[in-house]
Design a protein that fits this description.
The complex is a heterodimer.
Chain A: E1 5-6, H1 12-16, E2 26-33, E3 37-38, E4 41-50, H2 52-70, E5 74-80, E6 82-85, E7 89-97, H3 100-117, E8 120-126, E9 131-133
Parallel strand pairs in A: 1-5
Antiparallel strand pairs in A: 2-7, 3-4, 4-6, 4-8, 5-7, 8-9
Helix pairs in contact in A: 2-3
Chain B: E1 2-7, H1 10-15, E2 19-23, H2 29-39, H3 44-48, E3 51-54, E4 57-59, E5 70-74
Parallel strand pairs in B: 1-5
Antiparallel strand pairs in B: 1-2, 3-4, 3-5
Classes of the chains: A alpha+beta, B alpha+beta.
């Protein structure tokens, strides 16, 4: 099985080759690629970093939950870390289900969960030579109050 | 006791390093974070928004601190 986090370019054929699921008529794939702009600023490249011990455990748990909740025989998600150029794929999610509805729904849910919960950070490098970490989701478990989810995920 | 704070995301940039070691008099994770904030007041705002992990688990501010603890400071996340 391919790792959940890797510094190597993601290989969709390898993910699609994992296992055989003749009972599944639905196959959903989401790929998130690096785009060349953010909030109006030209972006040249990104760097993703992660806290691996927790990130890998959470990604396994998200896959397991998706399989249970959506009744999927198969669910995989993989995220790239390191320096990525425009057009490089940062995340793939593959879901297989007997029918398309569960495959689509689970695929969206898994990607949202990874964005909201997994300790991965994105640093953008801009055309003007500056760089910044993208505003993210606070994952504190013991925060007394939960501020509104006041940022937009692209 | 000695505590090591692992710095992730924007904290690495703010500190220019991957970890900070401190001698603290602390009973809980919250105590250790307060002493880090006293040593590095420029981090206080970011620390408020950090989750804290030990190994592959999130720990809570009220949890007891073990001697030699290694605490990973996890700022808001933005994968995908």
């Amino acid at each position: 099985m391919s790792p959940h986090l890797t510094e190597l370019p993601l290989q969709l054929p390898s993910l699609l080759a994992e296992g055989e699921y003749p009972q599944c008529g639905g196959l959903a794939v989401f790929g998130g690629a690096v785009r060349n702009h953010h909030e109006g600023k030209p972006v040249l490249r990104l760097r993703y970093t992660a806290y691996r011990p927790l990130a890998e455990r959470l990604m396994r748990e998200i896959e397991q939950h998706a399989r249970r909740h959506y009744g999927l025989p198969h669910c995989r998600v993989q995220h790239r870390i390191g320096l990525l150029n425009i057009g490089d794929v940062a995340i793939y999610c593959v879901t297989r289900a007997p029918h398309r509805a569960e495959a689509f729904d689970a695929c969206r849910w898994v990607v949202d969960e990874v964005k909201h919960r997994v300790p991965i950070w994105k640093e953008e490098f801009y055309a003007d030579g500056s760089s910044a970490f993208v505003q993210g989701c606070c994952i504190r478990a013991d925060r007394e109050t939960h501020p509104a989810h006041d940022h937009v995920h692209a | 006791m000695n505590v090591t704070f692992e710095l992730l995301g924007v904290l690495q940039r703010l500190c220019g390093s991957e970890r900070i070691q401190l001698q603290v008099h602390a009973a809980t994770v919250a105590d250790a974070l307060e002493q880090l904030a006293l040593a590095r007041p420029d981090l206080r705002g970011e620390l408020e928004r950090c989750a804290i992990a030990s190994g592959d688990a999130i720990v809570r501010r009220r949890d007891a601190l073990s001697p030699g603890a290694v605490l990973a400071l996890l700022p808001p996340v933005a994968g995908g």
